[in-house]
Amino acid sequence: MNMVSDTHSPASTGAPYLSGNFGPVADETTAFGLDVIGRIPPELNGRFLRLGPNPIDLDPTRYHWFTGTGMAHGLRVREGKAEWYRSRFVIDGRAAAALGREPIGGPGKGKRDRAVNTSLIEVGGKLCAIVESGSLPVELNYELESVRRTDFDGTLEAGFSGHARLDPITGEQHALAYEPGQPVRYISVGRDGRAATKARIELPHIPLIHDMAFTESFIVVPDFPVTFQPTRSHTTFPWLSAMKHDLQRGTTEVHQFGPGQMTLEPIFVQKAGAVAEDEGWIMRCVYDPERNLSDVVILDAQDFSGGQVARIHLPARVPFGFHGAWVPEVDTASVIA
Q1: Which of these, 170, 192, 184, lies nearest to 212 by C-alpha position?
Q2: CA-atom Rg of the chain in angstroms
Q3: Residue 238: is the preceding peptide bond cis (ω within 30°)?
Q4: What is the CB neighbour count within 10 angstroms for residue 225?
Q5: What is the rounded distance in angstroms from the CA atom of residue 92 to the CA atom of residue 113?
Q6: Contacts from 26-30 at CB under 8 Å and sequence distance 24+?
Q7: pLDDT by residue for the chain (337 residues), tens digit each?
Q8: DSSP readout, 240-266?
Q9: How far is CA 210 from the centre of its chain?
Q10: CB atoms within 10 A of CB 201
Q11: Rounded distance between C-alpha atoms, residue 24 and residue 26, angstroms
Q12: Each residue of 131-145: b (16+ CB within 10 Å) or e?
């Protein structure tokens, strides 16, 4: 039995997630011709994307990090150059009102139109911001502006997931969608951008499924009896040490980004024609508290503890967020997020 105290901790106000690099960024940014230290591999042609919460209508007594307004961040690199950086709010009803903008169109008004802030996927050639637990995705254009809510041409029965997973063989996206009052749905989204509910899973409770996994023959449904206990953690958060574990050799390599610098989730971009599973690059945002700005750092995944291949200075701070993606301009690289 899980025992949960009804006593609110000092952290329950949300204040810890409104300061430092958790704190909101007030403005959308557009910048061109970014400064680069090192050399961006010319094979990297595409957009490095991030998504996370960036609240704009704050009530510190009610704010929770998971529910903040989404902000998408994008860096476009091409032929060895960092061409542009953009950050844009992912528009929902509350964000539109706070920003004085017209609401975006699409289905889901009044029920499935809450904040979208978790991850990004390509569906039928369109970039979508996604979130778990009920709300519909938001379609973004190439410059990361919110276009509309989408239910994948009417093929979603209910909400979607914030953690869709790509099958590199079939090109399908697989997801487990869950929300209160609904069965868990196993959903597959084809290359054409249309969704199919493959199974409805009735459960006697509402587990925090959060993610999913699959093999050639099975879909794995996580049922997590999870509690968050930071006092028992074996590391600090935000993260200072990036690590690469070799499970066959039992070794660990560490990359230090610089004194006091903190890193976000990595994205692995595989080289075209790669044979080894680590033949590619690691891309990640790194926050520099001394400058109060963020960089995008590129590492050679096969020389993880070595020097940085390139460091791209961004003109803004990328708050600690959730997930991201690499979207290639041409089909010369693949992503594992």
Answers
A1: 184
A2: 20
A3: yes
A4: 8
A5: 6
A6: 26/56, 27/316, 28/86, 28/87, 28/88, 28/89, 29/85, 29/86, 29/87, 29/315, 29/316, 30/84, 30/85, 30/86
A7: 333 333 334 445 667 788 889 999 999 999 999 999 999 999 999 999 999 999 887 777 778 888 899 999 999 999 999 999 999 999 999 899 999 999 999 998 888 999 999 999 999 999 999 998 889 999 999 999 999 999 999 999 999 999 999 998 999 999 999 888 889 999 999 999 999 999 999 887 777 788 899 998 999 988 876 554 556 655 565 667 798 998 889 999 999 999 999 999 999 999 999 999 999 999 999 999 999 999 999 999 999 999 999 999 999 999 999 999 999 996 534 444 4
A8: -EEEEEETTTTEEEEEE-STT-EE---
A9: 13
A10: 13
A11: 6
A12: bbbbbbbbbbeeebb
Task: List the beta bridge partners of residue 254.
Answer: 243
Q: 212 and 222 in contact (C-beta within 8 Å)?
A: yes
Chain centroid, CA 274 distance in Å = 25
CA distance 14 to 67: 11
Kindly state the tokens that stand for 83. Answer: 């061409």
| HEC per residue, 4-43 | CCCCCCHHHHCHHHHCHHHCCCCCCEEEECCCEEECCCCC
pLDDT at 223: 80
Contact between 116 and 99 under an 8 Å Cβ cutoff? The reply is no
Distance of CA 185 to the CA centre of its chain: 21
The pLDDT assigned to 110 comes to: 84
SS3 of residue 301 by DSSP: helix
The single residue listed with the structure tokens 């969704």 is 195
* 219 SS3 class: strand
